[in-house]
Amino acid sequence: MARSYTRRRLLRITSAGAVGCLAGCNGLDGGDDSGDTTPTTTAGERSAERPSELNVVPEGATMVAHVDVTALLDSPVGESAIEGALSSVAAQRPTYDGPESYEEALDAVETGWELDPRGVSSVTAFVGDRTGGEIAFVAETNYDESEVVEMLETRGTVSEETYEDVAVHVDPTDSALGVLGDGRYVVGRTDTVESVVDVTNGNEDAVSGVVVTAYGHAPSGPIRFGTVVPDAWGQQSTNALTVVETIRGGMSTEEGQHRLVVEMETTDADAAGRLTTGLEDGLAEFQPRMERESGPLDDAFSRLDDIAVRRDGSTVSMMHTAGAEVTGDLIAVVVAVVGTFVLGLGETQEATHPRASFEFDYDADAGTVTITHQGGDTIDGSNLYVRGTTGNGAIDAQWAADYGVNQVWSGESVTVADVSDAFELRVVWDPSDQDISAVLAVMVGPGT
Q: Where does the Archaeal Type IV pilin N-terminal domain lie (predicted)?
């Protein structure tokens, strides 16, 4: 029986993969250093100077990525990835009547955009301190400004403004497109577009520092990225990410083989050894789960056990090398997930988890932890739980039933009692009417 990749199932798959890969990392404060010390860095000795494609990215960016669209579309990897993604979408939507092949997909995009996607040569993406965590893009194209403006006007009301002699087209939602000239366009929130204009005009510094170093040491190829690990990642996930400082990676090609690499720079060699062991254990646990499934991307999932985990000093690498078809299928997994969650291609429309931040205040003398909603979405108290261990026993307490907090908005708090320094508490969103849950925040005690 063919598997239907619904939004819910894709969430389960990706969550299981993430949890599986990190499952062995929950004990990163202990364990043996059994990492493979074979050097794995494929970038070689690269300069930490900023690559030219990042010269448009404003200072303060925490993530940078670059896609050579021309190289990817001309590659059999790109064709395989697109057709794999189309197969996944068709499997999850029985009434799907869209494009079924690589060429049909490109033609469909051209019809929808009224612009040929082959006209995009590259895209540089970034997340910066002025974007509020949102991503922005700078595209290099062969499109004339008149073509792009006409395309925008067919999609709704846009107003043209001028910022530092640059035309900026803004829609009512504050999404904007800036015309940088020579076929270059920046897309993002208005203030982000203006920031990129300032960089290109020399009025603001381009990105520098750790994120550039991470990107500069990523493998060269049609896909390349580098990012620092924000503190929030470690606070709202397992403590595996607390030992990771930067992540870099991408896709490179050599002698007909395509290599997908993710490299994590940790705090030290001991942490890298423990992370290596945890990733190996997590992959080993995840693979049997996928063997019980069947669907259009089975080959990609079945090849997950071919991922090699290696350590070189404080760097941990996850690497997969294969031919174009398999590499394309693995990329298609990512495309299918992004399409399902971001573009709404799934057959169901279940809500993703709420976005909210929480602060933990541990009072060792009183033996309590106070958890306070700091900002973000308001959450129904009957859907929110405190779970884990107080250090003196397990806890599974509902904010509404156990603490009397029916609506959890900014400033609302609960206090967990009888807590020792070995606690591990999670704020969990778990609505009873949906087959979905999410950990919104985590804190572990100093004695854990």
A: 331-387
> Residue 185: its pLDDT value, please?
96
Give the burial string for 64-96 (b: 16+ CB within 10 Å, else e): bbbbbbbbbbebebbbbbbbbbbbbbbbbbeee
User: Nearest-CA neighbor of 115 among 136, 146, 72, 156?
Assistant: 146
Rounded Cα distance between 420 and 43, Å, is 46
Separation of alpha carbons 209 and 180, rounded Å: 25
Locate 24 and state its tokens.
């062995």
Over residues 34-64, the pLDDT tens digits come to 444 443 443 333 445 789 999 999 998 999 9
Phi, psi for residue 233 in degrees, rounded to 5? -60, -45
The full DSSP string for 221-237 is SSEEEEEE--HHHHHTS
Lowest pLDDT segment from 79-83, 315-319, 327-331, 422-426: 327-331
Tokens linked to 273: 């050894």
pLDDT in tens, 321-366: 777 666 666 666 555 444 443 333 333 334 467 878 899 999 999 9
Q: List the domain boundaries for the chain.
A: 51-207, 209-348, 356-444
Contacts of 109 (CB under 8 A, 6+ apart): 117
Q: Are 447 and 392 in contact (CB under 8 A)?
A: no
Q: Got the DSSP string for 161-223? A: EEETTEEEEE-TTSEEEEEEETTEEEEEEHHHHHHHHHHHTTSSPBP-SHHHHHHHTSPPSSE
Maximum CA extent, the chain: 67
CATH code for the structural domain at 356-444: 2.60.40
pLDDT-derived band of residue 12, with 50, 70 and 90 as boundaries? Answer: very low
pLDDT band at 94 (very low <50, low <70, confident <90, very high): low
pLDDT of residue 339: 42
Within 8 A by CB and 6+ apart from 299, the residues are: 325, 326, 329
Q: Measure the CA–CA gap between 395 and 388, rounded to whole angstroms.
A: 5
Q: Which residues contact 360 (CB under 8 A, 6 or more apart)?
A: 369, 370, 371, 425, 441, 443
CA 417, CA 366: separation in Å to the nearest integer?
8
Three-class SS state of 111:
helix
Closest CA to 434 of 15, 90, 13, 7: 7
Report the alpha-carbon distance of residue 414 to residue 126 in Å, rounded: 37
**Number of Cβ within a 10 Å radius of residue 104:** 14
> Could you give the CA distance from residue 190 to residue 30 in angstroms, rounded to a whole number?
47
